[in-house]
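Exercise 7 asks you to align residues with tokens for two separate proteins.
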Amino acid sequence: MDEASEVRQGEELDAKKIEVFLRDVVPGLEGEMTIQQFPSGASNLTYLITLGDREMVLRRPPLGTKAKTAHDMGREYKVLKALGSVYPYCPQPLAYTEDPEVMGCSFYVMERIRGIVLRRDIPDSLGIGPGEMTRLCENLFKVLYELHSVDYRNVGLEDLGKPEGYVERQVTGWSRRYRAARTPDVPEAEVVMNWLKEKMPPDTDVPCLIHNDFKFDNVVLDPENPLKIIGVLDWEMTTLGDPLMDLGGTLAYWVEAGDPEEMQLMRSVPTNARGALKRKELVMIYERLSGRAIQHLDFYLCFGYFKLAVIVQQIYYRYYHGQTQDTRFQAMGYVVGILEKAAMRIIDQSKI
């Protein structure tokens, strides 16, 4: 179970202002309020708000310098409101505000989905053997494809993004972000960025809603049946675009058995467990679900590694410049180097 703990020093909230706001906009709240923090997130700050027997989750942007378009709380809230009726894995959104008097930044509150979140390794107590792990991997990709199958026009999200030119904007935008956030102790990555620019595939003919950070520790499993996914979290980067960009991002997190040792060291989810499917097998599952052969996979996976490197570097930038004291971020510059090497391996072996 993903449990909250004491709030980290320097990331405290003004409890009185939060309580006044919540009691005003969320009906039926009773009892005393407590605030704890979920310690695992590395981007937005996430808190557990308890009022009586009601459990809610508050999300706000991180402290320090942030990418201009990142951490859009209003966007995340809008997506959850729209998808709730057609995609049963969304937490129920309860409140959102941009009023600087409450917290000094925008934030939103949602109902907590209580369940299991898998981190680096699977606890033995869950009883997930090789066969169960195979089915869980299949279920994960079915839930991803379900999102890609949502008719975004019917839920009012047609203005969430611009599918035309999506891949080009992603390559250009994430390259710009990397250059802006680069510190002297990480690779230049110019070869990777130039290769991605040269090898961009054309626009997809099946644009859809994409999550952009879909992975094991962003889904919630049913405590009574750990093979069943009951929640999908972290919707801040959701947009309209190429579903294969989403697939490549998920595969970039997928450190499988047999990957280099340095990749194993940076693994954050249990994708190398016995029975876990390999990346090629996952691509075959997605092809079967979508009825389409996947071309340009090297590009999508290489971009997935690069984008993840940029996200990690943006977090490391805050630590490097003293904008956060969270010691979990101390080694993230090393992780950026590992991901750049992974992208270079794709480039060196690619035939596209």
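Second protein for Exercise 7:
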Amino acid sequence: MATVNPADEARHVPAGERLWNESYYLDWFAPDGSSGGYVRIGYVPGLDAVWYWACFVEPGQPLVTVIDHDVALPAALSSMELRHEGLWADHHIPEPLERMSCSLESFAVSLDDPAEAYHGARGDRIAFGLELDWETDRAAYGWPPEITPRYEIPCRVHGEVIVGDRHIEVDGWGQRDHSWGAARDWWALGWCWSAGRLSDGTRWHTAGAFAEGVDAGVAYRLDPDSSQFVETNDLAVRSELGREGFADWATLSFADLELTVTPLAWSPVLLTHPDGRESRFPRAMASVVAADGRTGFCWIEFNQPPI
């Protein structure tokens, strides 16, 4: 396993590729799967923009989502504060590899059908904000450096989310990750990513399904009360796609875990290349059942480039 350098928590100097990308993902879910959400801060300096996504989901309820691909880059590389029409957000890492905080004040759109995110995202405008902290649950996992500079951190998440006149207390679980240093061509490569927690405290992360019929990827299992990641490149991902390309279910097999994943609430994003190509990016909070009967929750995503 690659050692994670605390200095890499900061933003990095971009290279010259048009699609060079640096991103921070932060997600969470309630211990009972009753609500959750995620934030993604995606720096794309070759397009002179930040792609900012944030959402709040509850099974059976409208999706509350912010999707803005025209946020101005911060003036300084040392800053993660963002300002745009109807959106202010700031992000801090006061304790590298131990804690990251996120603040958001925005107007979001409420979608009765999450698939509307692919079709203009027309819905009711609603105030949406959050003040959340992601605190590391034991250790940070560094991806194999020959693949891409990236690390994943299982977390405990706490704070508050505001949706309209509702104030929702968060005391749950989640994951954060940070990647940089390469072009990210959403329109050429598909994948399936996941990260979650079983009820006994087992944590996991997977990234695979990069090519049809190839059972390989990056994955770990973090056992209860352990800070040692059990990592593997043997990963089998199977899924059944339904309406609008949303998966009805998925199975993940890796590191002596056999997980059946059932999406509970979707928060998709439509990604449009400057040349007009479109990639669909459905992300879902999901319930999980292990082959031995343990249960849990996770976030799972599928990048679906044009065929």
